[in-house]
Amino acid sequence: MATTKQKEAARRNLEKARAAQSAPAHGRQVPHETQGMSTAEENRLPDGDFAFPEERKEPLNDAGHVRNAVARFDQVEGVTDAERDAAWRRIKAAARRFDVEITADDWRQLFR
User: Fold this and answer.
1) pTM for this structure?
2) Are 38 and 69 in contact (CB under 8 A)?
3) Alpha-carbon span 110 to 112, nearest angstrom
4) Does residue 97 sit in helix, strand or coil?
5) How far apart are CA 38 and CA 71, in angstroms?
6) Concatenated DSSP letters for 61-88?
């Protein structure tokens, strides 16, 4: 059986949930909980901050983007194996810089 304190907390949580749901429904702008990188911010990054600088694909400016670059590495099209080798070196360096653990030793292991 729930205590009075638990019931009050549940009521407060329901009120917060209803308020959060109704704000966008009434056309109010509600900020996202996570701050992603806008297109303008990405455009301001130097070419060296990308795994594939010529194509400006896979930014490497924080730990989340490094993990994303590894996860999407096999989805990049139109690049040579030499470009992939160079990109993999950049990703590994960024992973060390941001303390991201990568289990694959070579990018070819991602394609298996």
Assistant:
1) 0.67
2) no
3) 6
4) helix
5) 20
6) SSHHHHHHHHHTGGG--S--HHHHHHHH
